[in-house]
Amino acid sequence: MENRTLYALYCATVVSLGGFVFGFDASVISGVVGFVSVEFDLTPIQSGFVVAAPTLSGVFGTMVIGPLSDALGRKKVLLVIAFLYLLSALASAFASSYMMLVTARAIGGLAFTSLMIAPMYIAEIAPARLRGKLVSINQLNIVIGLSAAYFANYYILGASESDASWVTDWGVDANIWRWMLGVEIIPAVIFFLGLFLIPDSPRWLISKGREEEAREVMGRLLPSDAIDTEIQLIRDGHDVESESLWHRVKGIFGPRMRLALVVGIIVGIVQQITGINAIFFYAPTIFEQSGIGTDAAFAQAALIGLINVVFTLVAIALIDRWGRKPLLLVGLSGIAISMAVCTYGFSQATYELTPKGLLEIQQIENVEEHFDTSDLDNMLGVVYQSDVEFKTALSNSIGTSAAREFESQFIKSSTTMNAVLILLGIVGFVASFAMSLGPVMWALFAEIFPNQLRGVAISFVGMINSLVSFCVQLFFPVELSVFGAALTFFSYCVFAIIGLVLVAWLLPETKGKTLEELEVMFAKRQ
């Protein structure tokens, strides 16, 4: 591999460390939410807000991050983002109340805007023939971060139950969720320090009249005889860069931008409304619903992280060979089928508290301190046809707080369900997402918008993407308690089918074209 390609790969890898921190931050909460819900006695909507708070603050961040990166440069903004990740991890680990935890996670949510800036930076330094692969490194780091968090949670949970002296000395057994959140400090520090070792985007430098600095950076990325041509192309694409922010905001709604904006909005909505962050952020909770218990649920969540990494590598191998559109069509088809499998699996489940199951509940340590097990006599032998019916009866018998705290044990002792079918459905969903909507969306966002409007346009579609993500995360616990698992997953199946039809109809192929060529192509296809 030639030095110029290696340097582009190096810059992309450093910037993509933000993806790792995001992935870790996003999925570590999956192991934390159950513990903090009990410790702070949270309702389902409060539990949802602990998970969703970063995404809500991220919505506000996306409104300004694009224009801010245009004004200050991608590198400076990424440094601020890295510092916010570090601050959030520290404050979350030491949170002493529900509000403090939500606030700390909301600070981290402002850093979620790295999802927009990193692909933008990488697209602006990458050769056209490698742009899809290099932008996808950010998605690869996201899924590695997701997987690392699942494994970290599983390890910390296992360690907390061991007799090792360091577990007690370091307070792991008494502060499980704090250790889960605190581990994020390590990658956040590495990301922050690494950013000092990369240059600013040459396209941004040229837009600010700093051509000599841009030439120096391009000299490490391009052959010397291609630099003048590239600079001229960038100049031609920056005709309106000096216009006010308001003019650029109006520009993204102009006729030349119509197709790019519609495609961006559709892909941004579909990526989240099909339920990916419900799966990632609530993986142990979902697997507990299949009756396998808490420890096994954490283990299966770790498996999901591994599948995510493997199929993201598949996407990186195929994105510049197959193209963006074929990957999206295959992935959305797989998502629809997988969600249909989960819907069927949960719809066939029944729930019955048997004498044997009741005995298992009675043997839980200190259970009598929370409720009188004789209050469950009215549920013995009654077959419930849905998880909603069963949980409602449970709450009526022993109280909402106790039912929530021991929900996993009750479901494990009472559920008749094909748990393997649920696991296959979730694995299929994650694999399909990882090879399509995960990496492809950000690659598209980084390339379908004109150079001079890219920051503002990505902010706009990123804000929509974050809003949908926030709603999915916030209301997932409520959907489970009100509608049940089967209907919740069925809704994701329907949204995947709608997204499949729209992508097949509207999305043109973008592989192998320069950013300037794509600008002309989208303008002509209005």
Automatic annotation (TrEMBL):
Major facilitator superfamily (MFS) profile domain segment(s): 11-511
TM spans (from-to): 7-33, 45-65, 77-100, 106-123, 135-156, 176-198, 259-284, 296-319, 326-346, 419-444, 456-476, 482-507
GO MF: transmembrane transporter activity
Assigned GO CC terms: membrane
SUPFAM superfamilies associated with the record: MFS general substrate transporter
Keyword Transmembrane helix: yes
Topology class, membrane: Multi-pass membrane protein
Keyword Hydrolase annotated: no
Alphabetic keyword roster: Membrane, Transmembrane, Transmembrane helix, Transport
Cellular compartment(s): Membrane
Entry-linked InterPro entries: MFS_dom, MFS_sugar_transport-like, MFS_trans_sf, Myo-inositol_Transporter, Sugar/inositol_transpt, Sugar_transporter_CS
Main location: membrane
Similarity-based family: Belongs to the major facilitator superfamily. Sugar transporter (TC 2.A.1.1) family.
Record PANTHER family: PROTON MYO-INOSITOL COTRANSPORTER
Protein name: Sugar porter family MFS transporter
Organism: SAR92 clade bacterium
Taxonomy of the source species: Bacteria, Pseudomonadati, Pseudomonadota, Gammaproteobacteria, Cellvibrionales
